[in-house]
Structure formats: structure tokens, C-alpha cells
Amino acid sequence: MPNDKVRAMIFGALCISFIILLTYVFSIQTVFIHITFGFLPLAIYGAWFGPWRAGTIGALANFLGTAVLGFGVFFPGFVLSDFLTGWIYGYFFHNKQTVSWKNAWLPFLLVTVIVHLGLNTLWLMLFYDKAASAIFLSRLIKNIICYPLEISLFLMVYRPAAAWHLQRS
Predict the structure, then answer these.
(1) Can you state the angle between helices 2-20 and 51-63, rounded to 10 degrees?
(2) Which string of DSSP letters, residue by residue, matches 60-104?
(3) Contacts of 83 (CB under 8 A, 6+ apart)
């Protein structure tokens, strides 16, 4: 349906802008730790439009935020990580009638373990030529603290957004 493609493009552009703002402008950053709220619009977009579109939006937001706007450092591995993050959220949340702690813990755990602690630590090791032991512990502590907070924030934002989205459909 052409209307769905137009809607996905419009929401995708808005989502990219929110991701860039929440990830690169309104965030807490050190060299190896990055606390951000950019996951919120990406997870909501994935719930509304599915895994492939959400993955594409995540990758585009990373590319635009780093390469074009000059925020952070551009590394292709992080583009892959953001694609996988969007894909995971879209796979688990798309077409779900209700989203609660019961079905939100697994996608957030996968993103935390596979993407944040796994791939992103690997990309940082390759990019900065540092040993994993030098950066992993601080990243592990940050992700243990942020994991329940991210789920709670997502559920607080998703429920009213889903109600609004259903009204508009």
C-alpha cells in the first residue's frame, strides 16, 4: 500500500532526527561509555514498521549523526550495530498487541549482550587498539545499570505512543 510507504518514510525521517538528537546531542559520553536515549525512537519505529525498516533507520541515523554531522567518530562496525539494534527491536515488537516486561526483557537483553557488550566492545577494541579487559568492565557495569532503566523508559514511552499510533491508523 503506497500510503504505508509514505507513512514509513515520514516517520523514519522524524525517527532519524530524534535518534540523532537523543544519541549525539543529549547524551553522556566518555571514550568507552555512551549513555543515551536514542534507543527509544528506534524501538518504537521497529514496533510500528518492522525489523528491516527499523534496521535501515538505525544505520542511517548512525551514518548521518557521525559522518555527515560530525558528531562522534565514524566506524562502519557501529553502523552494523545500529542496524542490528533496530532489527532486533522490530523483530520482537512489530505487530504485538501489548508490550510489557514479559516480552520486552528479551530484545533489550539481546541488544545489551550481543550489540553493546559484544559487537560495540569489539569495534572499540579495533578502532582504539585497546584490549577488551581495559574497557569491558566499565561497559558491563554501565549496561547492568541501564538495562532495567531502558526497559522502563521504553514501556513508559511506548504505551502512549502505541495508543496514538492506533488512533491515527
Answers:
(1) 40
(2) HHHHIIIIIT--S---HHHHHHHHHHHHHHHHHHTT-S---HHHH
(3) 55, 56, 58, 59
pTM for the full predicted model: 0.91
Angle at 87 between CA 84 and CA 93, to 5 degrees: 140
What average pLDDT does the structure give for the chain? 89
Annotated domain spans of the chain:
2-168
Grid cell of 55 as nine digits:
534496521
Distance CA 44, CA 60 (A): 16
| Residue pLDDT, tens place only, 155-166 | 999 988 887 876
Task: Say what the pLDDT of residue 2 is.
Answer: 57
- Helix or strand or coil: residue 34? strand
CATH of 2-168, one of 1.10.1760.20, 1.10.10.10, 1.10.3080.10, 3.30.750.200: 1.10.1760.20
Q: Angle at Cα 95 formed by Cα 160 and Cα 21, nearest 5°?
A: 50
Mean pLDDT of 100-124: 94
**Assigned C-alpha cell, 163:** 495508543
Residue with cell 491515527: 168
